[in-house]
Amino acid sequence: MECIEDKYGIKRYLIQIVVNGDDRALLVTANTLLVNVLRERLDLTGTKKGCELGNCGSCTVLLDGKPVDSCLVLAVEADGCEITTIEGVAQSEELDRLQNSFVENAAIQCGYCTPGMILSAKALLTRNPAPKEQEVRQAIAGNLCRCTGYVNIVKAVMAAAATTEQEKRGVA
Q1: In a domain, 110, yes or no
Q2: Is the model's pTM score more than 0.90?
Q3: For the chain, what is the domain count?
Q4: 89 FRET partner, CA 20 to 30 A, in 26, 102, 121, 123?
Q5: Does residue 157 belong to any structural domain of this protein?
Q6: What domain range is 102 assigned to?
Q7: Helices 151-169 and 114-127, packing angle to 10 deg
Q8: Which domain-ending residue is among 64, 88, 112?
Q9: pLDDT tens digit sequence for 97-154
């Protein structure tokens, strides 16, 4: 990673990341958080800022396919990585199956936790397309929702998984 020092002695690092399929090159300071790069530099505001301590999961993104709290990741740590935000989940103006399932199963209340929930669930369904309820609950355990009792969120993830299984078997 290239380091550039300005006339005031501030060091900036050139990072290369792929965000939602787009190659990006950015100059960042050593203490710049990934959540701030996404929201403030790339205008991807679907990634929410909540507790800024890694406790709530509202800033969850996928970093090389794994869910991470972007408020705990330095931008320089993401150099060379692929990042998926909620804006990168939908395909060609069409909501993803999981996003549709959240809508159909009333799993969205205020919506603040929804992007992180969806990304955590997406990572689960990628590695395990037919999870059990307990596995869904474990996958979203780092995402806090203050509006619901998680019942409809779990129901939405399970329904998305069932739809995927039905499509695999040709029963649509």
Answers
A1: yes
A2: yes
A3: 2
A4: 26
A5: yes
A6: 97-167
A7: 40
A8: 88
A9: 999 999 999 999 899 999 999 999 999 999 999 999 999 999 999 999 998 779 999 9
